[in-house]
Amino acid sequence: MKKTSVLFLPVVALIWIISYTTVQAQTTGWQKVDEIEKTITLPEFPERKFLITDFKSDTANALPSIQKAIERANYEGGGKVIIPEGRWYVKGPIHLKSNVNLHISKGAELVFSDDPEDYLPQVLTRWEGTEAFNFSPLIYAYQAHNVAITGGGTLNGNAEHGFATWRDKQDEAQNRLRQMGAEGVPVNERVFGLDDYLRPSFIQFFSSTKILVKDITIKNSPMWVNHFIYSSQITLRNVTVKSYRLNNDGVVLDSSTLALIEGNSFSTGDDSIVIKSGRDQDGWRVAKPSEKIIIRDNYMEGHNALAVGSEMSGGVQNIYMESNRLGEVASAIYFKSNLDRGGYIRHVFVRNTEVEKADILLRFHINYHSHRGGNYPAEYEHFVIENVTAKQSRVGIEILGIQQMPARNIRVVNLEVLQADTPQNVAYVEDLRYENVRINGEKLDVPE
Q: What are the extents of the domains in the chain?
């Protein structure tokens, strides 16, 4: 008996430790946030100042003086390029360089040209998850290190004509680019221009590091607003986005890592903040996930709020969203992919989220639109959603996996919707757990 007891007790203890460790790993993933945040360092700049008015600036077209100031600052080892108070017209794209802080002073507004020809020649970009050469973004940084946009002023994309009319004309080129990505056409042969109608992003950092965007207002974007591609060490803080057209996503983190998005305000015509990592075969080719991202203390209204996908073929993992406040939105917390994407979304933690009104509060969708073959569903695994409240929602919880690829390991804790037409719509989920989930004043159980 003694021998049995001696063996039995350690085994029980070991089982308890393993079970406890597993639960802790699932529920306390937040422990990694401090570690991630410590590795996100802000850019630093010399005290040198470069006023664009020292470079023969002209309010009718400030681009030459802005670009000369950037080149000089970069050549001299860095500093602050200052746009003084006033309304400045910019006839073409600003190309940022390493060690430059583009400082739009309070009371300054940069108004960008609405003539697409001003944004040629083409630059390397990623358009809806597929690499191509296309129109330059309005502000573009390629392989820049230690770079910032700050100041308290306004960036006006002026996309009410010109680019704004292109979405209805883009289908042919959009499909051609997607086919090029699927077939592995060399990137230098994927060149698009005036007859193709593929809109550029407003601000884009491509393969850049140690980035700060802070204290500015951005409005009237042609397409995605703040687009980070293959970039890391990203901080976006106290930025206001007001851009109401479809595809005006406020922040797009695209195969990027180590990002802190905090204290911003978004009023957008598409996703407020969305995490992506490439589309289908082209995303697999690049194979760069988006990971180690913190999203907190933001306000969002308009269309979808906190989103992942649908272009996520390189994978998305280790995402932390907390203390965000949402007004009236479509989908509040939204994970989307389709049957062509492949890739994965996993290890996502969301907590302390307040929602005024949503069409769908919590949404997982593996069969998003626009798929062609349907042979590569994405993997969804390990989500912890806790402390979420909403006053009103048409649908409370919608989790739609598919038979051959169910969503897995989803834990919902302390979620409440005061009024919902449909409490839940759930299919093809494995290991779904509810703890203190209440909708319409009643406890909600996991459907059988």
A: 37-443
